[in-house]
Design goal:
- It is a single chain.
- This protein is α/β, with parallel strands linked by helices.
- It has helices at 32-39, 55-58, 74-85, 103-111, 141-149, 169-172, 188-200; strands spanning 5-10, 26-27, 30-31, 47-51, 65-66, 90-95, 120-125, 128-129, 133-137, 164-167.
- Strands 1, 4, 5, 6, 7, 8, 9 and 10 form an eight-stranded mixed β-sheet that branches. A two-stranded antiparallel sheet has the order 2-3.
- A hairpin with a 2-residue loop joins β7 and β8.
- α3 (74-85) packs antiparallel against α5.
């Protein structure tokens, strides 16, 4: 039997580069976060949760919402909070500003948890792990907490302490040849480019 998993959307960032909450900027008639939620709706998860500090802003989405367990700990703190509150052994953690996440690629990532061989399953782009597009096991909690307590906030800093399965281009390009899954909408310029991309793809 396959180990169950949760999906967690990390929306705890301050969106300073966007100037407004990037989760709710309009992408061709729909907020960015709703594009992402539509793409993860049918992955087979036991639950979908949100990590957000402005809970009232996200209440209309109808999902369980959890604020950061440790304040001002950045993306690593968001990952920690997601794993902590997940009711399942594994959690797929995605940034809220990835509107082009690819369900087939996500299923491929999730299938690699079978056999419980890995604690982190993460794609790499040009050699850099995409830590907010990755699967984490509960075994990650102690090493992440040690980093947070030491104010060492680099997302991949704890990877040396756990079993990591990396997916490089040759692994993920069959599902996503252009790597559009990893496109973040952080700035107004990136939003404009995402709108053009969505129009080209008729999304």
């Amino acid at each position: 039997m396959t180990t169950p998993f949760s999906v967690a959307i990390s929306a705890g960032g301050k969106s300073t580069r966007m100037g407004t909450d990037k989760a709710f900027v309009d992408l061709n008639g729909k907020p960015v976060i709703e594009h992402l939620l539509a793409r993860v709706r049918d992955l087979g998860q036991a639950e979908t949760i949100l990590i957000a500090n402005r809970q009232e802003a996200y209440a209309h989405l109808g999902l369980p919402i959890f604020p950061d367990a440790l304040a001002d700990t950045g993306s690593l703190g968001g990952i920690y909070t997601a794993i902590l509150h997940s009711q399942q052994p594994y959690t797929l953690v995605l940034a809220c500003d990835m509107p082009f996440a690819n369900p087939d690629l996500l299923r491929y990532l999730l299938n690699l948890r079978t056999g419980d061989q890995f604690d982190v399953i993460v794609p790499r782009v040009d050699g850099f792990p995409e830590g907010l597009h990755a699967v984490y096991s509960k075994a990650c909690l102690p090493p992440i907490r040690r980093r947070l307590d030491a104010n060492q906030l680099k997302v991949i800093g704890f990877y040396a302490d756990v079993r990591v399965r990396y997916l490089d281009e040759k692994d993920w390009q069959p599902f996503d040849p252009d790597g559009i899954s990893f496109y973040n909408v952080n700035t107004p310029e990136q939003l404009a480019a995402a709108r053009r991309l969505a129009q080209e793809r008729q999304e």
